[in-house]
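Input/output pair, single chain:
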Amino acid sequence: MAKASAAAADANGENVAVDYDGTVYTVPTPINWDIDVLDELEAGRFTKALKLVLGADQYDAFKAAKPRKLSDAVALWEGISAACGVGSTGN
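Output:
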């Protein structure tokens, strides 16, 4: 999603679609993330932050796809970041 589209989604309170490994996840834009996401990220609890952004059902679907490495979760997170127009995790 282009930054302009992400900004429009922010302004309209819409979610964005993230295609990762053949599955489309729907997530809120960062401006609409629960404050707990920031707390989890700040505390270094990446998987809890990812679960909060995805929601329990989508997180369970991600896990059911059998991701095997941290790199799988990081790739999904980077897809979310790109779709939201916020850049890379730096990994």
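Helices lie at 3-12, 35-42, 46-54, 56-64, 70-84. The chain is about 55% helix and 15% strand.
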